[in-house]
Amino acid sequence: MRNEPLAYRMRPTKIEEVAGQEAIIGKETALYRLIKNGHVPSMLLYGEPGIGKTSLAHAIAGSSDLPFITLNATVSGKKDVEDVVAESRITGKVLLFLDEIHRFNKLQQDTLLPHVESGAIVLIGATTENPYHDVNPAIRSRCGEIRQLTRLEPEDLLSVLNRALEDKSRGLGKTAIEITEKQLLTIAEGVNGDARKALNVLESIVVASDEIDGITIVEDSLLENLLGRIGLFGDNKGSHFYNLLSALQKSVRGSDVNASMYYLAHLLETGDLVAVSRRLLVMAYEDVGLASPEVGPHVLAATEAAVRLGMPEARIPLANAVIEMCLAPKSNSAYKAFDAAVQAINDGKTGDIPMHLRDAHYSGAAALGHVGYKYPHHTPLGEFGGWVNQQYLPDKVEGTEFYKPVISGQEKKMAAIYEKLKEFRKKK
């Protein structure tokens, strides 16, 4: 058996061997037909680790007649790119797979530009980060395909695992292995759609299992032990982390407690407690807001307790906070009102501050006309406190309504007061 890991040896050698990703490289897709007809376009492949970006690039290379060169941007530099350019001048068009392309700085990426544009280099760039954020726009514009890969389904992973067990040249086909379909399914379902992890688990369990009469016997207990040590959550630095934060906020906004718990658990496993706490506090005021104004202070207390406690205890106050937000009446009216006011200002809808609202706490203010302000507390209005009918907005925007009440939870009472005050103003 060769020394390379099983996941490395079992990379597909042509596009027909690619597992999953039917929407990208399935037989009915334009990309599949382009490659089968001898044309490989420059492209960017985006997705989490282990979902097949490198494998797809190798499969495309195996299905084309182009010289294939691989570089990793974490260890390669401008000189390496220049060597690829020199190679293209000798051999003609080359296919360059540049892994972690987002790690290249602008100068390094710019070195590629004229050669990708001329067609001397066909570029397949792979990145775990959103290419619209982290890849030079000039590179993006020269890539005809920008594709986001998805995690593999268990049935796709079963295909990968069975191929590895049967392949006698690259896989484990020369080894007699007793492993059940249920055990294979356990691996497929336990690696979170990551083909590399699935093959790593398979190889590890085969090596760790006992051999009886020339047959390697896979035991359930050993499989469970290995799967329990596999990390599934990624890191807290990349796009996936922000996708998880987005999914958590949208699940809370949608009042789905179970989805919210799932994404909260996923996020806390990454270890960035401060970032998660900050997002929860934003959500309390952005999505729950005036409908349940008590939620903001509750979430603040929960996040402060979580940071003080640290993990794993931090999960307790945060779980309370998330469920309270999920099931609370919701309103985004406050920040929407603010955004509307900002938009009005940016649109030029401004005017002079009414004279009676200007600062009058100095000698000479009256001479400037800063007079006429009526103190609301001097005019009680039922149980509301004090109110007086006077103009507050500048003349040019007088009558503009930025606030649109949401009839939800406690904001219903605020909305009723707001409407009543509007009626009073009309009697001016």
Automatic annotation (TrEMBL):
Residues 39-154 form the AAA+ ATPase domain. Keywords: ATP-binding, Nucleotide-binding. It comes from the Bacteria. It holds the Pfam family AAA. Belongs to the AAA ATPase family. RarA/MGS1/WRNIP1 subfamily. This is Replication-associated recombination protein A.
